[in-house]
Amino acid sequence: MSMAVAGLLAGMALGFAGYFGGFAAFLLVAALGAVGFVVGRVLDGDLEPSDFFRGREHGDRRG
């Protein structure tokens, strides 16, 4: 099992801890699952943390 899948499962397990809250719990499960998936992808080496925190380059302005 890849780290991305393990992260997804861990995030969803944390979300299910708040399951008894109705629709808000559904959103919590989805959000924590997405966060777990992204963290797993970073740990697998498929994503770099700098991809999320890099600022805009000067020449990238459009319009």
Q: Which descriptors would you attach to this protein?
A:
single chain; 63 residues; mainly alpha; flat
Question: Quick recap of the structure?
Answer:
Helix content is 65%, strand content 0%.
Helix-strand layout with pairing:
Blueprint: H1 3-17, H2 23-44, H3 50-53
Verbal overview:
The chain is an all-alpha fold and 63 residues long. It has one domain (3-47). It has 3 helices and no strands. The protein has helices at residues 3-17, 23-44, 50-53. Helix 1 (3-17) packs antiparallel against helix 2. The protein is flat.
- Can you give the mean pLDDT? 75
Strand-residue proportion: under 5%
Topology pattern, helix = H, strand = E: HHH
**Residue runs with pLDDT of under 50 for 5 or more positions:** none
Organism: Streptomyces wuyuanensis
Protein name: Small integral membrane protein
